[in-house]
Give the backbone structure.
Amino acid sequence: MAQNDEEVDRVDDPAVLKQAMVRVAQAQDREAFQLLFSYFAPRVKAVLLKAGSQESQAEDLMQDVMMTVWRKAKLYAPERGSVNAWVFTVARNARIDLLRRASSRPYDDVYEIELESDVASGEDNMFETERAERVSEALAELPEDQRQIIELGFIEDMSQSEIAKKLDLPLGTVKSRMRLAYGKMKSKLEAVR
């Protein structure tokens, strides 16, 4: 499976991903796995980070997930779902397994564990209110096209490719507008960190 430019461009195509998975399952095809790895590794890591994993933990889990994909590709059943669904199920299960292992660690003395209060202090509330106001002000100062992309990305939790599809814009335009918006907002929000 030669990885030419056309194939790389079509890697979002479910048929290309399915074909690569079948080649890994049947022949342990390294080029097909490289295609799967380059497509899924950053996405799996991003999902793990979004789910609350620390950077190093997400990196380790992503590596484990991709090794599981390599070793267990024969278990993928196309009739039961897409390659995307299968890989992200492997990732979800790996994270659940890690959390289960971590939760079964015994504590030396549970009475010595200091828990943070669930009730926010007045100072925390004040800082949170100030932060929200500054973010709103910074958003309001953006041009409409940039603000719309930031809102879709962060409020509606859409990926850049989903935003491009929804707004009928080239992906490069979405990325460029997002980068410009970040630059404009950065200076306004430096003090709120």
